[in-house]
Amino acid sequence: MNKVTLSAAAFKPHASPATWLGVMGGGQLGRMFAHAAQAMGYKVAVLEPSSDCPAGHAADHLLCASYTDPAALVDLGEQCVAVTTEFENVPAQSLATLAGHSFVAPSADCVSVAQDRLIEKKFFTDCAQKSGVMPAPHHAITCVADIDSIDESFFPGILKTARLGYDGKGQVRVTSRIEAKAAFDNLQGVGCVLEKMLPLAYEISVLAARGADGDAVVYPIAENVHRDGILFTTTVPGPNVTADCAARAQAATLEIIGRLNYVGVLCIEFFVLEDGTLVVNEMAPRPHNSGHYTIDACITSQFAQQVRAMARLPLGDPRQHSPVVMLNILGDLWFAHGSRTAVESAWNQLLALPGANLHLYGKDDPRPGRKMGHVSFVAPTLAQAQASLQAACKLLGLPI
Ligand code: ATP
Ligand code: MG
How far apart are CA 334 and CA 338, in angstroms? Predict the structure, then answer.
C-alpha cells in the first residue's frame, strides 16, 4: 500500500492544533475561549494575577503573574504561537511586548484605542464619513473649568471616566453643571468624558471578526437590554431592529474593523435613537457578553471565531441557525434567594425549560452585579425563546 506523506504545506495554519494559544486575562471570556480552543485541539495558556479564576480552571496552563511581569510575558509569548486578550484593560504595552515573541491579535494599537473613551470617540468621528455613524455629542473633562465651558445643551448628561469603566462603573448621570462638578470631584479628578444623555429607543451591538488576510465576517444584530448599567438580556433577531438599521450597523462595523486593521473578534455597541439615528457608543476589542448567544445559536461561536482569527485559520460562518434570547445570571440571585442551595436548586427547573442552555463560569463567590453565568434559550421561533425567558425570569424572581 502506498504511504501518503503529508507535506509541510498541509499544515498550513500557522498555529496548527496541538500547539499553544495564549490569553491575557482569567475571566469568563478566557474560560469560554479556552473551551473553544481546546475543542479544536489547541492547548491554552492563561496569564492572570489571580490563581482562582474562571479561565485558569479551564486552561492547560495558568501563569499566575501580574499583566506586566516581564518574565511571565516572555514565558507566555515563547510558549504560544498566538496570544489574545480577554480583558480590555490589559496594559497595551504588555501586548506590545508579547508581539516580540508571538503573533498578538488584536494588536496593542487596536486595544489601546478601545481603552480610552476619548481616543475611541475621536477614532469613531474620524471614521464617520465612511461609516455613517457618529458617537454621542461629548466633551473631554480634565479639570473643573472644562465643565464651566460646556454648553447647557449637554445636560442632562453622563459623566464617564475616560479609562477603566465597565458594566456602568465609573459613570454618573448628571442633570446640571453643579451635579457634574460634584461627580467629577467624587471621581477624584480622573480624566472623564461628559456625554449628552440621548433619547434611546433601543440598544444593539454588532460582533465582527477579521483575519490577518483582511477577510471579515459580521454577525447578526444583537438587541440588548441593560439593567443598572449591566447587560440583562440579548435577543437575536432583535424585535425592534429594522432591516435598514441592521444593514447600516453592520456596514459601519465592517468599516471600523477594516480601518483599525484589526485581527480577531471585535464588538461594537450602538444606540438607536427615537428618531432612528444610529449612534456608535463604544467597542470591545474581544468577544463580548452580548455575543454569548453565538455559542448556542450560530454556526461559529464568537470564541471559535477568535481561535480561527488568531491562529490565522479561515474564519467561520457567522450565520445564526435559531432565534435566541440570552439572560445574564448575576450574583444578585444568590442574595435574593437567601442561600446557595436555593439558587442552585433552581438550575433543575431552569434546564427543564424549552431550549435552555446553562453556562456557569465556575465562580465561587457570588456578589451583587457579578456575572456568574448566562442562560440562552434557543427555539424554532423567537416567540418560543421569549416564552422560555419569561418563565426563567419568573422562576428566578427577576422582574421582566
Ligand atoms: P459596558 O462596558 O458594560 O458595556 P460601560 O460601563 O462601558 O458599559 P457604556 O456602554 O458607555 O458603559 O454605558 C452603559 C449603558 O448606559 C449603555 O448601555 C446605555 O444604556 C447607557 N448610556 C450610556 N451612554 C448613554 C448616553 N449618552 N445616553 C443615554 N444612555 C446612555
Ligand atoms: Mg457599554
Answer: 6
Grid coordinates representing 273 are 435613537
Q: Is 319 helix (H, G, I), strand (E, B) or coil?
A: coil
**3-class SS at 99?**
coil
Residue 138's alpha-carbon distances to 83, 187, 247, in angstroms, are 34, 18, 26
Is there a contact between 105 and 212 (Cβ–Cβ < 8 Å)? yes
Locate the ligand 1 atom nearest the alpha carbon of residue 198 and give its number. 28
Å from CA of 269 to ligand 2 middle = 6
Pocket flag, ligand 1, residue 171 (CB < 6 Å): yes
Distances (CA, A) of 194 to 152, 170, 199, 279, 379: 12, 12, 16, 16, 41
Task: Report in angstroms the alpha-carbon separations of 255 from 203, 221, 277.
Answer: 20, 16, 18
The DSSP code for 350 is H
Q: How many angstroms is it from 347 CA to the middle of ligand 1?
A: 30
Phi, psi of 167 (to 5 degrees): 45, 40
List the chain pLDDT tens, one digit each, 400 residues.
444 444 444 444 556 666 999 999 999 999 999 999 999 999 999 999 999 999 999 999 999 999 999 999 999 999 999 999 999 899 999 999 999 999 999 999 999 999 999 999 999 999 999 999 999 999 999 999 999 999 999 999 999 999 987 766 788 999 999 999 999 999 887 999 999 999 999 999 999 999 999 999 999 999 999 998 899 999 999 999 999 999 999 999 999 999 999 999 999 999 999 999 999 999 999 999 999 999 999 999 999 999 999 999 999 999 999 999 999 999 999 888 777 777 877 899 999 999 999 999 999 999 999 999 999 999 999 999 999 999 999 999 999 8
